[in-house]
Amino acid sequence: MAGLKALERAAIVAVGSELLTPSKLDTNSLVITEELNRLGIDVVAKAISGDDRDELAAVVRGLLDRVDLLITSGGLGPTDDDVTREAVAGVVNRALVEDREITARIRARFIARGLPGPMPEINRRQAMVPAGARVIPNPNGSAPGLWIDEGDHVVLLLPGPPRELRPMLKELAAGWLKARAPGLAMVRRVVRVTGRIESHVDEALQPLYREWERADPKVAATILATFGSIELHLTVRAPSERAAAASLDAAVAAAAAVLGSHVYSTDGRSMEEVVGDLLVERGLHIAVAESCTGGLMASRLTDVPGSSRYFRYGVVVYANEAKTTLVGVPAALIGEHGAVSEPVAVAMAEGVRARSGADLGVGVTGIAGPTGGTTDKPVGTTAIAVATAGGTTVRTFRFHGERGLVKFQASQAALDLVRRLVSG
Ligand code: ATP
Ligand code: MG
C-alpha cells in the first residue's frame, strides 16, 4: 500500500431504515469515530440512509469524492432489504462476483451452529463481492466486511450488528487502517464541571482558548452544556499518542486551575464514580433521605459497581409523615418551616445519618414542579443538607427546567456537596 495517500478525512454512512425511526439510534458511527480519531483520521460527515438502494447509492456517491475513507455499517445481511453491497458496487462500477470461499465459510457456519437444513440460497448474497474488493473476516456473523480501493479512496463496508462490527473494526484499526492512517494520533479528554453556568465557564476559559489555539500541537476545545454538568472537551492531534497525551495533561491542568473546585472529573469518571472513589478512599459510609429526587441519588450512587462498600441505604421520604416516621423529622418543624426548607433538610440528613449509622447522611427536599411552587419558594427550590461527624452543611438551590431536570440537578448538587465535604 506504499505510495497511497494517507486516509485523513472520513465519512460514515449508517444503513438501516430502523435508524430513521424515532426508536432506534445509530451508535455504530460513534464507535467508528472513536476508532478513527485514535488513528488521527477526522470524521467530516455522517449520514443515515434507509434500506433503499437508490437512496444509499446517492448518499455514497455524494460523499465519496469529498473524503479519503467512506465507511458504511449495516445492510450486509442475506435478505432483500440488505442493499449495501449492490448500492456501493453500482457507485464504484464493479460487478458483483461470488466468492466461493465465503460461500463455503457460511455453509460451514450453518453446520457448526447446528442450524436446521442446508444453507438457504439467499445466504449466497452475502458471498457476493464487488470485483477487486478485499474480504474482511467476520468472526461473529455470516456477512464478511469488504474493503474496496477506489483510486486513493477507500470504501469500507461493515455489518450492522454492533457485536460483529466492533471486533472487525478493532482488527482493521490495528492492521489495514493503521497502515493508511496519517501517522497522527488524536486524543480526547473531558473536563467535567458543576455548580457554574456555561457562560461563566466559557468566560473563565477565554485566555486559555487563545493559548491553546497558538500551541503546537494545537488544543481544540468545545463546551457541551447539560443541566447540572458542563463538559469541556479537549482534543489534540500529535505525531504520537504520548505527545498528544502530554499536551492534553497540561491543558487539563490549566483548565482545572482556572475552574478550581468546580471541576469534579478530568478522567472520564461520572460524579457518582468520583464520590464513590472518595468514600472508599476515606473509608466512609453514606445514607440518603430523599424527597423530591425520589431515589435518584440512591440510584446514581448504586449505578457504580462496588457501591456496597460505602452505600448503606436510601429512603424516599416523600410524604410529610414519612419524613417523621422514617427519619425522625419533627412534625412541628415541618409545620413551622414547610417541607421544603433548610431546617427540614438538616433534620432529614441528621436523622438518616443517626438511624443508619453511616458517617454521612444526606437530606434532599425540593419542589420538582411543574406545580407546587410559590412566590417564596418557586419550582426548583431545593434544600440539600449533608450531616457528618463534624456538623451539618445545608444549602438552598433554585434549579431551572422541567421536572426531570430539576430532579437530576438536585441529585447532582447533593452529590457535589458530598464530594466537596469529603475531599475537604
Ligand atoms: P444482518 O446480517 O444481521 O442483517 P446487517 O449488516 O444487514 O446484518 P442490519 O440488518 O442493518 O445489519 O442490522 C442488524 C442489527 O444491527 C439490527 O438489530 C440493527 O438495529 C443493528 N444496527 C444496525 N446498524 C446500526 C447502527 N448504526 N447503530 C446501532 N445498531 C445498528
Ligand atoms: Mg440486515
Sum up the structure in keywords.
single chain, 424 residues, alpha/beta, six-stranded mixed β-sheet, five-stranded mixed β-sheet, 40% helix, 25% strand, binds adenosine-5'-triphosphate, binds magnesium ion
Which helices and strands occur, and which strands form pairs?
Blueprint: E1 9-15, H1 28-38, E2 42-49, H2 53-64, E3 69-73, H3 84-91, E4 96-98, H4 100-112, E5 128-130, E6 134-136, E7 145-150, E8 153-158, H5 162-174, H6 176-180, E9 185-193, H7 198-214, E10 219-226, E11 229-238, H8 241-259, E12 263-265, H9 271-282, E13 286-290, H10 296-302, E14 311-316, H11 320-327, H12 331-337, H13 342-356, E15 360-366, E16 381-388, E17 391-398, H14 403-423
Parallel strand pairs: 1-2, 1-3, 3-8, 13-14, 13-15
Antiparallel strand pairs: 4-5, 6-7, 7-8, 9-11, 9-12, 10-11, 15-16, 16-17
Helix pairs in contact: 1-5, 2-3, 7-8, 9-14
The protein binds adenosine-5'-triphosphate (ATP) and magnesium ion.
